[in-house]
Write a structure and sequence with these properties.
GO terms for molecular function: ribosomal large subunit binding. Keywords: Coiled coil, Protein biosynthesis. Belongs to the RRF family. The structure is a single chain. With 112 residues, this protein is mostly helical. 75% of the residues lie in helices and 9% in strands. The protein has a two-stranded antiparallel ribbon. It is elongated, with a radius of gyration of 23 Å.
Length: 112
């Protein structure tokens, strides 16, 4: 029975939900967040934000290497290289700012 399998999976995941099996559907009862659970969730949020920033840095570094390779192979000029790197850094700054803003907004939502 798929309902029982889903119920078992939710229980195994230890998500903190109370499960009420209604036969044809499951009712999940989510208790209000405690201060401790809010702090844990904020910590997870910070970890996710840092992972996002690290991923963006990795992508930026990879693209920067490609740009440098193009310049080394004389496919673009040195001026073009610096312009591309400057554009890349600006784009990275914008995305980092967006991640920061979203993180701050989400943290405020969690604190409510």
């Amino acid at each position: 029975n798929i309902i029982k399998d889903v119920e078992r999976a939710i229980q195994t995941a230890s998500l903190g939900f109370a499960i009420n099996n209604q036969g044809t559907f499951l009712r999940l009862i989510i208790s209000p967040m405690t201060e401790e659970s809010r702090q844990k969730l904020i910590k997870v949020l910070h970890d996710k934000l840092e992972n996002a920033r690290m991923a963006m840095r990795g992508i930026r570094d990879k693209i920067k290497e490609e740009i440098t390779g193009l310049e080394r192979n004389k496919e673009i000029s040195e001026d073009e290289k610096y312009k591309l790197v400057e554009d890349l850094d600006e784009m990275t700054r914008k995305y980092n700012e967006t991640v920061r803003e979203v993180g701050e907004k989400k943290e405020e939502e969690i604190k409510l």
